[in-house]
Amino acid sequence: MVLMLAEKISPEQLKKISQDLDGYIKFVVDINREIMIAGGTRHVEGEELLLGGGSKQEDLWGGGYDLESREMDFDSMINIRPDQGNASREVLDSEVRKKVEQIAKRLLVQ
Hints:
Blueprint: E1 2-5, H1 11-17, E2 24-30, E3 35-39, H2 43-52, E4 60-66, E5 71-73, H3 94-107
Antiparallel strand pairs: 1-3, 2-3, 2-4, 4-5
C-alpha cells in the first residue's frame, strides 16, 4: 500500500503501510512541494506517482524509516544521479538530506 502525504500520517495509516516490508517504510520525498509517497516495496513506485502528479525528478529523493529502531536512512536507487552530483544510493548533499529528513519527520514520524 502506498500513500501520498501532504499532512501528518495517522497511526492507522502508518500501521497499514508498514505491513509491506514488516515494519520498514520506504518513502520518496519531493523537497520542493514538501510532499511524500510512503509505503510500497520499491522506491520507484513512489517516484512514478510523484512524477505523474507534477513533481520534477531533481526534487525527488528516496529513503526509509524503521518503526522499531526509529532510524531513518537516505538510501535508494532513485538517488543515483551523477548529473546532480549524487553518484551514490545515499543522499550526499547535506542540505538536500536535511530537507528530506525534515519533511519525512513532519509527515511520517509519530
